[in-house]
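Open question from group meeting: does this chain pack into something compact, or does most of it stay loose? Before anyone orders reagents, we agreed to write out a predicted structure and look at it together. Recording both the input and the output here so the notebook holds the full record.
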Amino acid sequence: MKNSHQIISTPPLAPDNEGADEGGSEAEWRPLSFDPAHHGLRLDLALTDLVPEFSRSYLQQLIDLGSVLVNGKVVKKASAKVKAGDVGQIELRPTPQSQAFKAESLPLDIVFEDESLLVINKPAGLVVHPAPGNWSGTLMNRLLGHDAQAFNLPRAGIVHRLDKDTSGLMVVARTRLVMDALVQAIAARTVKRQYLALAHGAWQGPTLRQVDAPVGRDPGNRLRMAVVDLSVNAGKTAQTDFACLATVDTGCLLKCTLHTGRTHQIRVHLASIGHALVADPVYGGAAAAGMARQALHAARLAFDHPVTGQSLVFRAPLPPDFAAALAHWGLNYNSASF
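Structure tokens returned:
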């Protein structure tokens, strides 16, 4: 068992993982010949019959990239219909998506590690899962590089996530049994998560405030979340406790305790009570006190070990930019408050 809070980097691994590198490491041109059985089919469906060793999703990626020619012309619509007698070719090559599930030798800040789980201190700017624009260099890629067993788990054992610009603690499973147990514990709200937030505006009223307000897609802007009326809009109940740790005229330092885990919950709830998160323009915040990213840090994580039953509590120190912002505004932080 390790409990040494160190930055580690591991050599790259090359496990034989299904879908990890569809198309191989080099391009291959393969001829296509559509027969009567393909007549009238969508191009992507016809290709799954002609190139059966590859997934439909991967073949659709190749179509989008212009790697499929029919009768000498590039076809970039998966829904295009083919006819009997059509001929063409397809370039089988790696795509960003097909290489997303690859091990990468990049550092991880590991707070705790045993044979069952990891606790990671994620830096701001690190994306958790591969997605458009971030197909590599993610936390998942780093976990795959750290431990070959992660290839046997959905999402490499990741059971919850933090936004790209949020720093702090995450727990990651190393076995399927532990992964299922952690997912259940999070759903049962027995995994305790507390955050530090730097918000705009002087805190008014009681030091402690509970916000119990449903969160769902903003009906006026589907790219963001909002507090919604469940009798009118889709959403889920959400509850956050806020405790003011320090306040000045320009802003306040808050301890945020999640009782539910809705998308952007803390950010939405803070905006709803007039204290938008610093440097969070999506929900009304602006850059301030030198903070260039949303001022949210997952500072404390507590749960019972799924295997040993041991009560575990972890704390992550303030990142340098967060600490500098507090100093800039003259806000005092006592780590004992966590």
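Observations to bring back to the group:
The first helix runs from residue 43 to 50.
The radius of gyration is 24 Å.
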